[in-house]
Amino acid sequence: MARDVKAEKAALRAEMLAKRNAMTADEVAAKSAAITAEVLALRTYQEASTVCGYMAIGNEVRTREILLDALAAGKTVLLPRVQKNPKRLSLHAVTSLDDLVPGPYGILEPGGDVPEHELTTGDFCFVPGLAYDTLGYRLGYGGGFYDRLIEPAEKLSVGFYALSFLQQLVSVVPTQANDQVIDYIVTEAGMIDCHSTFDSEDSLRLRNMTFYGYHGVNESEREQGIRFAVDVQMTFDLQHPGLTDDITATVNYPAVYRFIDELQKSRQFHLFEALAEAIARGILREFSLVRRLTVAVRKFNPPVGGVMDAFEVEITRYRSWQHRV
User: Fold this and answer.
1) In terms of Cα–Cα distance, which of 53, 18, 49 is closest to 35?
2) Is the peptide bond before 104 cis (omega within 30 degrees of 0)?
3) Helices 253-266 and 272-286, interaxial angle, to 10°?
4) How many domains does the chain have?
5) Which of 77, 105, 271, 278 has the maximal Cβ count within 10 Å?
6) Whole-angstrom Cα distance, residue 17 to residue 3?
């Protein structure tokens, strides 16, 4: 059955809005202050001559202090204005936050007859959203305005930053072809570099998982059974669980053990190469966070007509970027 990505997005959007709306004013203020401090300390922010941002609404991370700091530092500050025909955001320079007017969605935006600006190389731009994953995918409010803003600016090496509470991080944001990625996520606990996520060498290792099964070429192995062991090293970015201490943000390794046990009980393999391949492909299929894994399968005291402690097969398999789920 085909995935309904639009429905997945709608469900996640409702969930994240409810979570954020449940935050108290004091919680929003305290966490926003921590995120503001992180932003103001960034070299990319300090060195940027132009800062593009937005005025926060509801329980979004507060942005006013960042914008005021940029104005006080003499930076060019760009804020978006909603254009409905065609549907896009135009950017306009402001010299004060006191002259903003409510736009079509109630968000304060530049008013009057002010010229439109374009983003250029080296600009620092922060964008809103409801949910993010560490690959840089964001879930917005559904209008596609910021995807249209980000797409052409990516070629100019503009840095796009999400200001996000930790609770807005999710393992995987459902995506469609037109969804654009951001570069960094700034949270109250620190910043996530989305560029490094897919190349991350963070790993979970499961060592010496021991099973009893009926595998091998020899008839005695297939009839009487053998004891064998499996090691699995799963490589994927651990920034999300590391920052949030959230068990749902990582791989459930007891579930990996159960998967392997059920697999080897349900099928009989002549070759341990085939067993290792089935384990690797199954883990990539069942555990979507895993980007790369190495599987080692060891047979103890193999029948070679002499003394041998173990025979081992080791393979490494990858999830391609195009196969992101």
Assistant:
1) 53
2) no
3) 140
4) 2
5) 77
6) 22
Query: CA 91 to CA 163: how far, in whole Å?
Result: 19
The amino acid occupying position 317 is R
Number of C-beta neighbours around residue 272 at 10 A: 21
| pTM, entire model | 0.79
* Chain centroid, CA 64 distance in Å: 26
Contact 13, 130 (CB under 8 A): yes
19 catalytic per annotation: no
Classify 206 as helix, strand or coil. strand
Could you say which of 164, 195, 226 is where a domain stops? 195
pLDDT in tens, 64-107: 999 999 999 999 999 999 998 888 999 999 999 998 999 988 99
DSSP state of 180: P
Of the listed 9, 31, 75, 299, which one is catalytic? 299
Instruction: List phi, psi (to 5°) of 40.
Output: -65, -20
**Tens-digit pLDDT profile for residues 167-185:** 999 988 998 888 899 999 9
State whether 171 and 229 are in the same domain: no
State the residue range of the domain holding 134.
5-195
